[in-house]
Design a protein that fits this description.
The complex is a heterodimer of chains A (about 525) and B (about 325). Chain A is mainly alpha-helical and about 525 residues long. The longest helix of chain A has about 35 residues, at about 45-80. Chain A has helices at about 1-5, 10-25, 25-35, 40-45, 45-80, 85-95, 100-110, 115-120, 130-155, 160-170, 175-200, 205-210, 215-225, 230-255, 280-310, 320-350, 355-360, 370-385, 390-415, 420-430, 435-460, 465-470, 480-485, 490-515. Chain A is built from 24 helices and no strands. By secondary structure, chain B is an alpha/beta fold. In chain B, helix 2 (about 30-45) links the parallel strand 1 (about 20-25) and strand 2. The longest helix of chain B is centred in the first third of the chain and has 15 residues, at about 30-45. Chain B is globular, with a radius of gyration of 20 Å. The chains are: A mainly alpha (about 525), B alpha/beta (about 325). Chains A and B meet through helix 5, helix 13, helix 16, helix 18 and helix 22 of A and helix 1, helix 2, strand 2, helix 3 and helix 4 of B.
């Protein structure tokens, strides 16, 4: 309790405030652009509310579908004697490294009315999946790994002594699940759902390909065909409003579950649950998820590649694009973790209402479409920092602004798990606060920090709209290479950078997946 | 990245030498990169190119204002050029006079550099050319129920609807859109997916720009697709342009102007006939289009001023919303 009374060091509070202020630059830009007579008209227009309804329906649908797919899979992979657990686990996480636009293209290529599947089945045509259904499937495919990775970590981190105590008290298996297991994974499932919802709010690629109109799709349309920045900015602010609701809802749903381990101690594995006669259905479930969400998009890419080779298309391996992708995404990961540290440390070690608000505010820009973030930085950099405009620095900054919450998700839980008494001991030995952070906190929190950085890295590898506008001239990433080829319908050529992107991202995904501590007790 | 650094170093060390010209290109790298190489070979002027979406680059230029690093804006459509026309410098008469007045900005701030025609793409396994309508009016016929594809969010479809509105009036355009929708028209994100859907037999015909057929055939050589040109004078037979303009803030106005002038030189125009991966129309008189394309002179679509598209577009989008094509 002593922590509550303490005031944070000025340097720490200032660092956190500066990071959040910078992360809010895109919103400042939107406010500048939305300050117009038309503001009220646009917000109250029936059309705006239709777009809000479409967007919310899609976000809720994808969150529910992701939970339905990912939580049972995470349970089976982490807690049972399911054969092939490692493979099913890898397959459940892997779609995170597939750009969602590519996944949607693959979905249409495979399961479209006259796609590869229709051919293979010998049927004239399959039902049309474009619209809500297609957007729901493609976005669930791309985002359910957020829920899977976080809940799998939570399942692994459950303290077996709690369940044992419940069993000792004569509580049956179903009530044990409701009273012990469910509360333990609820924070992880909630945080995963928040990341899913924010992703859906900001997505343009999938909804435009699937022809489902959302706020983000309407924002792009404003820029692309009407060249009118005011309505785009107003709709962007509406999106920020939805983000606030999502962040607050997550906070509420996370509840007061504090089923953390009683002490850091040696991690004891919870007992493995034998599946018995549920074994076959469990395998069938995992195989269906892996087949639809992992094998299907990869198979489509391979089919395109083979088709290109058979048609004698010149297909080059984009090594220099790969190098540029790795450089920018790697830098973004490091900077994002450094930026997240003071916020997470402040909120956790010096809990107060302002600190909590600051921490949650850092999430607000995350649901903005990439184009809005890109144009805001075009505006600020070109006019106020021309020397840095269109340099790698501003591109990395844009990635950090877009993906800061992912670094925060890792940092918050990691710091929560470091025992503050160790830091106090360090301070007692005469080390400064900064020195303690560097020598004690960061090393102990490293796995969670690395996992957060890895999430940022994976997102930056896939980022397109901000990359296109802010990259230095001649700086081509794998994502821009995929874009360049799909623009001229050259899917066989696009499949090579897509497969390379997936191949380079997969090992980094492993960093996230292996870290069981990622969110096992966000409330500390 | 090494190349970027090297280019920057060369630029910095060049001293009195000319800096590379900065081009913002909304046109696809796969298509125009060879054109830029030809320009440099012909003039010795180096270029560095930022590729992106035309409209997003236009929005960027607007946000950059006076600090825009761009010297030239090379865009897919008159709409993107029109959106930043106040930031473009008037071009010299020698350049403007190379093309028909219908293909350039009224005040000479940008010029069209190549033409694209609206056509109906069709599946050659299912249809003979004579079976395919050569007027957009026929697309609302029950015979085509559920067989037609359009791309309502795409700039070229919106330009076509604008042309129709200006030619026939809003009421007729609205009636056509309503009937088209009642006829079970399918919608796609943009032109290429329509051509692919026609190739796959998902739909039988689609309203697209004419140059996508060779692009899709490069990917699927056996794709059963071909274009049907619309009859002369049809409200759908719009010829639009890709074009270019020089930024008023350019520090290299002379080279930039030379570049736009070169795009309309015989050499720059012959690129579309002899080399380009697709088949756009050259706009300069006396340079005939690739074989198989209907000559530009016979197209005669709706007589509309391409410059007026910008202001008209919001009305078009409103109409597309009222008829349920857009939310």
């Amino acid at each position: 309790m002593s922590a509550r009374a303490r005031r944070p060091p000025v340097a720490l509070a200032a660092a956190a405030a500066v990071v959040v202020a910078l992360a809010l630059l895109p919103i400042v830009y939107l406010v500048l652009r939305a300050a117009d007579d038309r503001f009220v008209d646009i917000v109250t227009e029936a059309r705006t509310w239709r777009l809000v309804a479409n967007t919310v329906l899609l976000a809720l649908g994808v969150v529910l579908a992701s939970l339905a797919v990912a939580v049972p899979t995470a349970f089976l992979v982490t807690r049972t004697d399911l054969p092939g657990r490692r493979i099913w686990g890898a397959a459940a996480g892997l779609p995170l490294v597939i750009p969602s636009y590519v996944a949607a293209l693959a979905l249409l290529g495979m399961a479209g009315e006259r796609g590869i599947l229709a051919d293979a089945l010998g049927t004239d045509r399959l039902p049309d999946i474009t619209g809500y259904t297609g957007a729901l499937i493609a976005l669930t495919l791309s985002t359910h790994p957020y829920v899977y990775l976080l809940t799998a970590a939570a399942f692994r981190g459950i303290d077996p002594s709690l369940a044992e105590a419940a069993r000792g008290l004569g509580v049956g298996p179903y009530r044990r699940f409701l009273r012990v297991t469910f509360p333990a994974i609820r924070p992880a499932a909630g945080l995963g759902s928040l990341l899913v919802a924010l992703y859906v709010l900001s997505d343009f690629g999938v909804v435009s390909l699937m022809r489902y109109d959302t706020l983000t799709q309407a924002i792009f349309l404003q820029y692309r065909s009407l060249f009118d920045r005011t309505p785009a900015a107003v709709l962007g602010l509406v999106l920020v409003g939805l983000t606030v609701i999502a962040v607050v809802a997550e906070q509420r749903l996370r509840g007061r579950g504090r089923l953390s381990r009683s002490g850091p101690g040696v991690q004891r594995q919870a007992p493995v649950i034998p599946l018995g006669r549920w074994r076959i259905p469990a395998i069938a479930w995992c195989a269906t998820v892996a087949g639809a969400f992992c094998v299907m998009p990869l198979a489509a890419l391979v089919v395109w590649l083979v088709r290109g080779v058979l048609n004698d298309r010149t297909i080059a391996i984009p090594w220099s694009e790969a190098a540029d992708s790795l450089t920018a995404s790697g830098l973004a990961a490091v900077v994002a973790v450094l930026a997240a540290l003071p916020i997470a440390f402040l909120a956790n070690r010096y809990p107060s209402r302002p600190a909590a608000v600051l921490q949650r505010t850092a999430y607000l820009g995350n649901a903005l479409p990439g184009i809005a973030i890109a144009l805001s930085l075009v505006f600020f950099a070109a006019n106020y920092l021309p020397a840095l405009y269109q340099t790698l620095a501003v591109l990395v900054f844009a990635y950090v602004v877009r993906f800061l919450p992912q670094a925060l998700a890792g940092a918050e839980s990691a710091i929560a798990q470091v025992d503050p008494r160790l830091e106090e001991a360090s301070r007692g030995l005469g080390r400064s606060g900064f020195e303690t952070l560097r020598r004690v906190t960061v090393p102990l929190a490293r796995p969670g920090l690395v996992a957060g950085g890895a999430l940022v890295f994976l997102s930056a590898m896939k980022e397109l709209p901000a990359t296109l506008l802010l990259r230095p001239i001649g700086f081509d990433t794998l994502a821009t290479e995929i874009w360049k080829q799909t623009q001229v319908a050259a899917y066989s050529r696009a499949s090579v950078p897509a497969l390379l992107l997936i191949g380079l991202s997969a090992p980094v995904l492993w960093l996230v997946a292996r870290d069981a501590r990622l969110t096992s007790s966000p409330e500390g | 990245m090494v190349a970027v650094a090297a280019a920057a170093l060369l630029g910095a060390c060049g001293g009195g030498d000319k800096q590379a010209l900065t081009i913002y290109s909304g046109r696809e790298e796969e298509i125009v990169a060879p054109l830029f190489a030809k320009f440099t070979a012909a003039t010795g002027i180096e270029v560095q190119v930022r590729y992106g979406d035309s409209a997003e680059l236009a929005a960027s230029i607007a946000e950059e204002g006076e600090n825009s690093p761009a010297d030239v804006f090379f865009a897919q459509d008159p709409g993107s050029l029109g959106a930043v026309r106040n930031l473009l410098a008037p071009l010299p008469p020698a350049t403007l006079d190379r093309i028909d007045a219908g293909f350039r900005d009224a005040e000479g701030r940008w010029v069209g550099t190549s033409g694209r025609a609206r056509v109906i793409v069709y599946n050659t396994d299912r249809l003979q050319e004579a079976d395919v309508p050569d007027t957009v009016a026929a697309l609302t016929d029950p015979a085509w129920k559920g067989r037609v594809g359009v791309a309502p969010t795409n700039a070229s479809f919106q330009a076509f609807v604008t042309g129709m509105r200006l030619a026939l009036g809003d009421a007729a355009a609205r009636a056509w859109l309503t009937a088209l929708r009642a006829n079970g028209v399918k919608t796609y994100e943009k032109n290429a997916p329509i051509v692919e859907a026609v190739a796959a037999g998902e739909i039988d015909i689609g309203l697209v720009n004419h140059y996508y057929v060779p692009l899709v055939k490069a990917e699927q050589p056996d794709a059963p697709i071909a274009n049907r040109f619309l009859r002369a004078g049809d409200p759908g037979a719009l010829v639009s342009v890709a074009g270019a303009g020089v930024l008023a803030t350019s520090g290299q106005a002379e080279d930039a102007t030379a570049f736009v002038g070169w795009l309309l030189s015989d050499e720059g125009q012959r690129f579309y006939v002899d080399e380009a991966a697709e088949t756009e129309y050259p706009l300069v008189a006396g340079i005939p289009a690739k074989a198989g394309l209907r000559p530009l002179a016979e197209m005669r679509g709706p007589a509309v001023d391409l410059t007026s598209f910008g202001p008209e577009l919001s009305r078009t989008v409103e109409l597309l919303r009222e008829t349920g094509f857009l939310t």
